[in-house]
Every structure is written in structure tokens, then in C-alpha cells.
Design a protein that fits this description.
mainly alpha; 2 helices; single chain; LysR family transcriptional regulator; globular; 46% helix
């Protein structure tokens, strides 16, 4: 499954790299809102 995000381009990555790639993309420097946290959880579940 893939989740399409506006203004983003898909980069082919290995399945096992998907989670670590996502952590690189996610802004680490500020607090996630509950909506952002839920969105991330849904994305991670979609990868399984």
C-alpha cells in the first residue's frame, strides 16, 4: 500500500528501509501534534 502525499515524489526504497526513511523525513525538532502522530501510526500500519 502507498499513501499519496501532496508535493511529494516517491523514491524507490527497500521495504526494510521504509520505516527509517520515514524517520528521516519526519521533523524531529518539534513536537508532533496528535493528528500528526496518528497519521504516522496509520502510515506505519499501511506498510505492514
Amino acid at each position: 500500500k502507498r499513501v499519496q502525499l501532496n508535493e511529494m515524489r516517491w523514491v524507490p526504497i527497500a521495504e526494510e528501509d521504509a520505516v527509517s526513511e520515514m524517520w528521516l523525513v519526519w521533523p524531529k525538532h518539534h513536537e508532533q501534534s496528535p493528528a500528526a502522530r496518528n497519521f504516522r501510526i496509520h502510515l506505519l500500519n499501511a506498510l505492514r
